[in-house]
Write a structure and sequence with these properties.
It contains eight helices and nine strands.
């Protein structure tokens, strides 16, 4: 009987492991584990060190570690490097915390929206869909070919370069440009 129970446990473990492994994606040279929250994963991505520093400066670590769920459009370091020289250094100063917080929460949507969900919204919206951000702003999701991109309130565009990075408290979509609210 013990052998049968052991075999059943081993078979169940084997059946579950590939599913979890398939959900784990690599971002910035690090595995993003679906059992960890947004912050626990982001701190391991070498492509998101600027974003993590900005989240810390804005005091959003606790928020993005909470239950959520959240959908985060996570700009890479390269995305931040596209901003005019000195912008990031200026934004992380304590006196600019309100502006930094507004920009960062503009990249966050309440709820968990997968790429399939975004595609469905675009199709239902006749080619585009509007999302409400945690900062109170609006983002427009559109498709071009097989790519989804976001248009911010100032007309700037950002591509989703890595979609559906599962987190315990939501989902991350890696983007290649910082989105700017009005």
């Amino acid at each position: 009987m013990k052998k049968i129970i052991f075999a059943a446990i081993a078979l169940a473990t084997f059946a579950i492991a590939p599913t979890v492994q398939a959900q784990t994606k690599m971002v910035g040279g690090a595995a993003m584990h679906p059992t960890k929250n947004i912050i626990e994963n982001a701190v391991n991505s070498k492509d998101h060190t600027t974003l993590v520093a900005a989240v810390k400066a804005a005091g959003l670590v606790e928020t993005l570690s909470s239950a959520g769920p959240f959908t985060v459009f996570a700009p890479t370091n390269e995305a931040f490097n596209k901003l005019p020289a000195g912008t990031v250094d200026n934004l992380i100063k304590p006196e600019n915390k309100t502006t930094l917080t507004k920009i960062l929460t503009y990249h966050v949507i309440a709820g968990k929206l997968s790429a399939a969900d975004l595609w469905a919204k675009v199709k239902a919206g006749m080619g585009k869909a509007e999302l409400s951000t945690m900062s109170g702003g609006k983002l427009t999701v559109m498709a071009q070919g097989k790519k989804l991109y976001l248009v911010d309130e100032k007309g700037g565009k950002s591509w989703i370069t890595i979609a559906d990075v599962n987190q315990s408290n939501g989902l991350i979509h890696v983007v290649n440009t910082v989105l700017m609210p009005r």
